Amino acid sequence: MKDRVSALLLILIVLTFTACERLDVVRTYSIIAFEEVYNEIPDKIIKENGEFAVISPHGGDKFFFGTNMRFEIGLTPFINAGLDTDKLINNNSNMSITGDTLIITADILGAEGQTAPKAFEQVIWNNRGRLYYHMEHDSFELLLGGKNSFKWTKDLDKQIADDGTEVHDLCFVLNPSVFVDAGADIENIDGWVYRETMTVDEKGKMVYLMRLVRQNQLR
Amino acid sequence: MLPCGLIDTVCVIILKLNYYLTTKRAVTLKEVIYLKSQILGIHGMSCAACAQRIEKVVGKLDGVVQANVNLAGEKLFVVYDERVLNLENVKQAVTKIGFEAVEPPGGSSVTIPIGGMSCSACAMRIEKALGKLSGVTSASVNIAAEKAAVVYSPGEIRLSAIREEIEKLGFKVFKINKTNAADEDKIRKQKEFKTLRLKFIIAALFGAPLLYVAMAPMIPWVNLPFPVWLDMMSYPLVFALVQIALVIPIIAVGYKFYTVGFKLLWQRSPNMDSLIAVGTSAAVIYSVYNTCTIYKGNLRAVDALYFETAGVIITLILLGKTLESVSKGRTSEAIKKLMGLAPKIAIIIHDGAEKEIPIDEVETGDIVVVKPGAKIPVDGTVTEGSTSIDESMLTGESMPVDKKAGSAVYAATINTTGTIQFCAEKVGSDTALSQIIKLVEDAQGSKAPIAQMADIVSGIFVPIVCVIAIVSATAWYFTAGNLEFSLRIFISVLVIACPCALGLATPTAIMVGTGKGAENGILIKGGEALETAYKIDTVVFDKTGTITEGKPTVTDVITPDASDNADNLLRITASAEKPSQHPLGQAIVRNAQEKGFKLYKAQEFNSITGRGIEAVINGQRLLAGNRKLMDERRISLLAMETESDKLAQDGKTPMYVAVNGNLAGIIAVADVVKASSKAAIDTLRKMNIEVAMITGDNKKTAASIARQVGIDRVLAEVLPQDKSGEVKKLQDEGKKVAMVGDGINDAPALVQSDVGIAIGSGTDVAMESANIVLMRSELTDVSTAIHLSRRTIRNIKQNLFWAFAYNTIGIPIAAGVLHIFGGPLLNPMFAAAAMSLSSVSVLTNALRLKRFKPYR
Lengths: 219, 856
What we know:
The complex is a heterodimer of chains A (about 220) and B (about 850).
Chain A: H1 2-23, H2 25-40, E1 45-48, E2 51-55, E3 62-64, E4 70-74, H3 76-80, H4 85-91, E5 95-98, E6 101-105, H5 116-126, E7 131-134, E8 139-145, E9 148-153, E10 170-174, H6 177-181, E11 193-200, E12 206-216
Antiparallel strand pairs in A: 1-2, 2-3, 3-4, 4-6, 5-6, 7-8, 8-9, 9-10, 10-12, 11-12
Chain B: H1 4-23, H2 29-33, E1 35-43, H3 48-59, E2 64-70, E3 75-81, H4 87-96, E4 100-102, E5 108-115, H5 120-132, E6 136-142, E7 147-152, H6 159-168, E8 172-173, E9 177-178, H7 181-215, H8 236-253, H9 255-266, H10 272-295, H11 307-326, H12 333-341, E10 345-350, E11 353-358, E12 367-370, E13 379-384, E14 387-390, H13 392-395, E15 401-403, E16 408-409, E17 414-415, E18 420-426, H14 432-446, H15 453-480, H16 483-496, H17 502-519, E19 522-524, H18 527-533, E20 538-542, H19 543-547, E21 548-558, H20 565-577, H21 583-594, E22 602-608, E23 612-617, E24 620-625, H22 627-632, H23 641-649, E25 653-659, E26 662-673, H24 677-686, E27 690-694, H25 699-709, E28 713-715, H26 720-732, E29 737-741, H27 747-752, E30 755-759, H28 764-769, E31 772-774, H29 780-815, H30 817-820, H31 828-847
Parallel strand pairs in B: 20-27, 20-29, 27-28, 29-30, 30-31
Antiparallel strand pairs in B: 1-3, 1-4, 2-3, 5-7, 5-8, 5-9, 6-7, 10-11, 10-12, 12-18, 13-16, 13-18, 14-15, 14-17, 19-31, 21-26, 22-23, 23-24, 24-25, 25-26
Helix pairs in contact in B: 7-8, 7-11, 7-12, 8-10, 8-11, 9-10, 10-11, 10-15, 10-16, 11-17, 11-31, 12-14, 15-16, 15-29, 16-29, 17-29, 17-31, 18-29, 20-21, 24-29, 29-31
């Protein structure tokens, strides 16, 4: 009798874990959605120095998703908008400049993978608590810390959201306040849009924030 | 006592007349012979619609003459031609429409505690012996509980015979508790309330967290604590599954809505349960479908879950039903009280000696002895002795009736003065008391509960909603060409159309209404009374004790020379009457005491049965009594004939007083009208309500009282057993009748009427038989009760409006009307808003009833 109960408990535990994994549909479909993006722009997802990166089709900025998660974005449009780079670097420890490239390090766990989709999948697994789904735009958002995030769509064919706004397939999203503090004219940064975006605050509540967005339409 | 065969024939003749009157087809004598009547127990009924359906279906069967369903008693009374069909055909017809018909076990059931059993062999011996007795249907002995459950026909075998049989076997029988309809009904109602309450508690325990889980994410601007693992945007499938887990117990406790609601919908008689079943089923099925699509990757479907809608609706409806069962009406306590009136013991002459026996064992032909102060045990005729008997329980009149050899006496009446012997002629179920009990039972059983307004409205609303759902879904299918979308529209309409506050609309108004009644001294026993009283267009008042004070009062003290000797006359007469038990004498004593007269002590006193009294006061010989006494003692009444005639015309009772052989004066006694009676009747007239008076008293007295209070329609000299018949006659004229009474004899009429109103100072039986009790015994409260009822009904209708209003506004949204112009479709926020707005509106509106003021 004891053996039967133990066996039943074991089966239940296994089923529970299996079930738990299958219950996380946001994770599952976020990975599937990224794979669709990957399939749509395979030439824009590269491997550089052993790390995978997504290149923004507009502007060439990069989002690295490997062991060292980070944005690498072109500094010129910011400087042209009045950015004081010294002030920026001095005030933000997660930022550094190499040539004309601004590097913004993400405050999340990195990951490795054989392929880009696998690496991205591992990032998601490692940072599940930073992954959110936005119903209105039918898109996913990975919070990178410091109000920065990486967004990608679930449905590449969806152009207009329920609220009538445009849906973008791939977005790099930055916290504008650090640039404002460094003297940049936030509304005139070439290639970047300063607009309201949906995100999640520290308490996990859905909020709308004004942020800088590099938006890309893949279809 | 008529032989059984003759009773059947009489019943059938009555049925023949009824059949002719209802079908306008004469039933021949040949057909009458083949008519059979049977009562079947019906299981599965839940409301008046079920009862009507069964009556309709059974009534349509070939060969069925009459079919009546008693919903409260769960019985079907059917009369049929046995040549055309048999009872099995009837049972099959009932089963076909979803109910169960069983032949009742028949007879009474009793649990007999038995001592002395030691093993199962003892139990078997008892069962075998009882089973052999003629009249015993079944006997089952439980040795562990030391009880025997016996079903038997009281007409064939007495309980004492069953007890004797057990004792003959050598066992001891302890005190027997007979279950009766009243106890069973009370137990059933208590069980029903407990079950509903438990269901509501379970539903609320799961419904509260369900509502929180579903709604908290929808209102992010309110910082409600919420676990991350339940966040709908992070874990939408978990979010949905948790809601499924919470809604399942709620649906489980509310399963009856589905079994009853869908059954009635299928039978094209939808009621409130049908609306709940359709709406919540649509909500749950649609939500489960959306949960599956979430699993398949359609994460947006998390915004189309309506589990909390279904859960909250069921919870609130259960709350409403629990509140209803608390305020559910009249129990059968009236019958229990009536049964308690009969004495338990009788004294009979057996072998020349007096013997005490249980009343059940008195047989016809026994000579019964009744001493002063005792109750008459059975009906019979006096053989020896004379006395006065208080028959107020039968006639309602407080004056004792003189009895001598040859006079009839009735069970449960009270012997006042002398010892008598009488021959028992009607025992058990044949006594007049039993007839009253039967009348009360029959009247209670014949009235179906009113069809509740919520059911009526739902019956109309459900088909309309279904049509709208089908039409809008079809329109969208042909315009948008998307099957899934049109199905979504179809289900959305069904979901939003289900109003959660529907179940609260009536009980909240009833609770506030009954509370308001209590504040005004009006005890309303149940929502049904409030829901019926507003239709009352005729009020019938009992006379004695209702319109009048109910006890004799001195109205006039007249002396031959109209001198101020009147006070002296009253004083000495009261002194003489002090030892008397007679109500007339006591009225005189009361009047003298109220006037502050100090009474003398009577040196001699003698009560002359049926005549009056004789006493010596201060050395003077005084006679006080009726005309017969004066005539026998040769005291001339000529000097006061005129006054005497006038008093009789006014319906008063003159008590002649003679002192030392000469007429000293007349003291008139009458049952006076209550101070508030006229005002009460005037108020009812202003409300366009017809007023009538019913009494067993003579026509002259009745007419006099009616004149004083302004009543035109008088039904006088009505026997107690005919009072309910008179009420029925008025009802057959199409009137909605309220009966106002206070006596035991009023009980059948109180039960027969559409609304029975008892005076608080009346008997327990009257108060138990009535729907409404006027605690202050003020007749002006009758109009207040009716006015309160009208206001309550108006409030219920308003509540139903609010219950439906918001949901009805939501129907076009759900049907996609706004979507045509780019607007939204139905989403859970709309459904939640409709639910909360309607609930708040209903509750707030019900509370407005607290501002009720009596009609003046």
